[in-house]
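hey can u check if this looks right to u? its 149 residues, i copy pasted from the old doc so theres a chance i mangled smth
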Amino acid sequence: MKYDRLTTSDVGILRALLEVFGRAFDEIETYQGAIPEDHYLESLLAKPHFIVVVARVDGEVIGGLAAYVLEKFERDRREIYIYDLAVAEEHRRKGVATALIAELKRIATSVRAYVIFVQADRGDGPAIALYEGLGTREDVYHFDFIVND
C-alpha cells in the first residue's frame, strides 16, 4: 500500500478518488455528476491550503482524504479540517483510514498545524469508532447557512 499527497500533476488520481468517494458515500451524482475541468482541479491541487492524500494498491486508488488548512487569526498557527475521508468497501478494516490520517498528521507538522479535526454523521458507527480511537470526541452542533434561497 502506498500513501501520497497529490500534486498538480495528479488530476487523474484525484478523479479516481472522486469515484471512490461517490461509491463509499453512496452519492455517485454528487461526486461524478459535475466533475470540474482539469485546469480547475490543477489549480485547486496547487493551493497550499488544500490537501489530498490517497492510498493506492498496485496503482489503483482504494481510499483517500481531502482536507483544508485553516489559518488562525489569534495565533500564528493552523488547523486542518478533514472534509472527506473514504476507503473502498473491499479495503476497509485494514488500517487504511488510520494510515491516511497518520500521513495527514505528518503533513500537518510541516505546515505548523496544531490540530486536525473531522465531523462524523450521527449513526455512522464505523467512522465514529475510528475517530474516537484516534482523537478526542467533541460534542458540537453543526449549522448550514444557505447562501441563495
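The mean pLDDT is 95.
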